[in-house]
Amino acid sequence: MIKKRIIPCLDVKDGTVVKGIQFKGLREIGDPVELAKRYNALGADELVFLDISATETGHNLMIDVIRKTAQQLFIPMTIGGGIKSTDDISRLLNAGADKVSLNSSALANPQLIKEASDKFGSQCICIAVDAKWEADKEEWYCYTHGGKKRTDIKTLDWVQQVEALGAGELLVTSMDYDGMKQGFDHRLLNKIQALVSIPVIASGGGGNAQHFADLFKETDVSAGLAASIFHDEEVSIAEVKQCCTENGVDMRNV
Amino acid sequence: MIAIVDYGLGNIANLTNAIRFLGYETILTHDEEELRKADVIVLPGVGHFKDAMDRIDAIGLRELLTDLEKTKPFIGICLGMQLLFQHSEEGDVDGLGFLPGEVKYIVSDLPVPHLGWNNLHSSYPGLDKDVYFIHSYKVVTDENVVATADYGQEIVAIVQKDNVIGIQFHPEKSGDYGLEILNQALQGGWK
């Protein structure tokens, strides 16, 4: 049967990997190509690069990063951040990306999801959803621009809409849990997975190996994603996989 | 020389990278002379079945591919494998028809696309580890099956009939093990 995936996420700004805590206070971590190779050797099942560059020059550096990484790395690579058009997607796929993840541009123009999935296939269109709970409204709302801008779009409506438009996968980040290292947002993830039939990657809150095992035991999501805990070597991918295996979760043997 | 058939579909950089990484020379082309000179023909593809067949027909490749298939090692990968078969539900169109069978949507209670690492099952040695799948349609055939995967239903993963090989998953995205399988296919496959 299909294995649950463990995915390190590398936030890349102007060609360098950085990761903020709850989307604030960026700090430098390192060379993306070297990090990608290291994660491949350590058993990562897939990599996500989020390009958080603010400039055209920064985005162009990302193309180089993808090209160099793809020449040396033979596991799936998803690229997100700053993607505005099918031309952008085409450039990324041609450089060696396997999937692209769209967030702000999809919320601004949902039709882009349909155009992109018609042109490149659903399988390479992942929609990134940054969700924040609002207790007074008892709803999650979608955020854009790296969690800085709130939209009026309800997360649980949006995920169904993007599936209907042809998205092949969801990357769901709980902004309430991100950076807290207290475990994943099972409530949000279960709500979403019950509404869609495409695979969901869970992000936000993974702080130790047991959190991943709990994620896969208590939700039906396909993958768990984390960044700083892997970059800072607080926990290794091998430890995560061993813990999951001990908890009866099927993992890929490398 | 390994010729990767260029019919205007994107996302073939990685297949080229992997074949080169294995030490082969590659050429991305739809030129008849180049294709006829090549030692192995690789038909790549991601995306929509009908779009792919339309593009193949638009540049007049169907007849040439049909001719090459009779004489050379011919490997279809992912959508490229599906194109080898007779017909697809995706766009309700005929494929190249080199192999008997149909391409159908994966109807499942599990998430679709069938996306991620899944292990192969085969009576051939060495075809038992995890490889990376990403597809919403599957090949349905009783013949020429070399390996399958289990996704609550049987997923045909590798087929081979003489010189024609189809690989549903992405060997170029399946780590070192995937590269081994790709190399085996380029070296003549499993029969």
Automatic annotation (TrEMBL), chain A:
Active site, UniProt feature: D11, D130
Reactions it catalyzes: 5-[(5-phospho-1-deoxy-D-ribulos-1-ylimino)methylamino]-1-(5-phospho-beta-D-ribosyl)imidazole-4-carboxamide + L-glutamine = D-erythro-1-(imidazol-4-yl)glycerol 3-phosphate + 5-amino-1-(5-phospho-beta-D-ribosyl)imidazole-4-carboxamide + L-glutamate + H(+)
Subcellular location: Cytoplasm
InterPro entries registered for this protein in UniProt: Aldolase_TIM, His_biosynth, HisF, IGPS_HisA/HisF, RibuloseP-bd_barrel
Gene3D superfamilies found in the cross-reference section: Aldolase class I
Keyword Cell division annotated: no
Entry-linked SUPFAM superfamilies: Ribulose-phoshate binding barrel
GO terms (BP aspect): L-histidine biosynthetic process
The protein's enzyme class: lyase
Documented EC number(s): 4.3.2.10
Pfam families, alphabetized: His_biosynth
Single annotated GO MF: imidazoleglycerol-phosphate synthase activity
Gene Ontology annotations for the cellular component aspect, listed alphabetically: cytoplasm
Pathway terms, separated by semicolons: Amino-acid biosynthesis; L-histidine biosynthesis; L-histidine from 5-phospho-alpha-D-ribose 1-diphosphate: step 5/9
Keyword tags: Amino-acid biosynthesis, Cytoplasm, Histidine biosynthesis, Lyase
Stated role: IGPS catalyzes the conversion of PRFAR and glutamine to IGP, AICAR and glutamate. The HisF subunit catalyzes the cyclization activity that produces IGP and AICAR from PRFAR using the ammonia provided by the HisH subunit.
Subunit structure comment from the entry: Heterodimer of HisH and HisF.
Family membership: Belongs to the HisA/HisF family.
Protein name according to UniProt: Imidazole glycerol phosphate synthase subunit HisF
Native species: Trichococcus collinsii
Automatic annotation (TrEMBL), chain B:
Active site positions, chain numbering: C78 (nucleophile), H170, E172
Gene3D superfamilies: 3.40.50.880
Single GO term (MF): lyase activity
Cellular component GO terms held in the UniProt record: cytoplasm
Database matches in Pfam families: GATase
Signal sequence residues: none
Glutamine amidotransferase domain location: 4-175
Cross-referenced InterPro entries: Class_I_gatase-like, GATASE, Imidazole-glycPsynth_HisH
Primary site of residence: cytoplasm
Catalytic activity entry: 5-[(5-phospho-1-deoxy-D-ribulos-1-ylimino)methylamino]-1-(5-phospho-beta-D-ribosyl)imidazole-4-carboxamide + L-glutamine = D-erythro-1-(imidazol-4-yl)glycerol 3-phosphate + 5-amino-1-(5-phospho-beta-D-ribosyl)imidazole-4-carboxamide + L-glutamate + H(+); L-glutamine + H2O = L-glutamate + NH4(+)
Domain of life: Bacteria
NCBIfam families: IMP_synth_hisH
Role according to the record: IGPS catalyzes the conversion of PRFAR and glutamine to IGP, AICAR and glutamate. The HisH subunit catalyzes the hydrolysis of glutamine to glutamate and ammonia as part of the synthesis of IGP and AICAR. The resulting ammonia molecule is channeled to the active site of HisF.
UniProt-recorded name of the protein: Imidazole glycerol phosphate synthase subunit HisH
